[in-house]
Structure formats: structure tokens, C-alpha cells
Specification:
three-stranded antiparallel beta sheet
Length: 57
């Protein structure tokens, strides 16, 4: 199980952090570590699975 930051996920997916924010609104799985919109982490395997299941053809 590998947690990544928003920046790391953006680099992995070769997109901007703004795109990651948009994908989160569309259901990209993420974990908030504080109630005040603090640090957000992503499980790498969950993100890859979500991308594969939600890719647009």
C-alpha cells in the first residue's frame, strides 16, 4: 500500500494538480488527513484502478 501526495499523483498521471482536483470531484478516491481541507493523500493502487475503470474512449 503506497500513499502519494496530490503533486505525486499529478506527476504519475502526467497532468496538473488542478486536473487532480477536478478528478476528485468526479470520484477519484482520496483521503483527507484533517477536517480543514488539509493534506490529501491518495492510494496509488486505488487511483490506477479508478482511472482504468473511468477512462473515456
Amino acid at each position: 500500500m503506497e500513499f502519494l501526495t496530490k503533486k505525486e499523483i499529478a506527476e504519475l498521471l502526467k497532468c496538473s494538480e488542478k486536473t487532480i482536483d477536478r478528478l476528485r470531484k468526479e470520484g477519484l478516491p482520496s483521503y483527507n488527513l484533517s477536517e480543514n481541507k488539509g493534506k490529501v493523500l491518495f492510494l496509488k493502487d486505488e487511483v490506477i484502478k479508478w482511472i482504468m475503470n473511468n477512462k473515456k474512449e
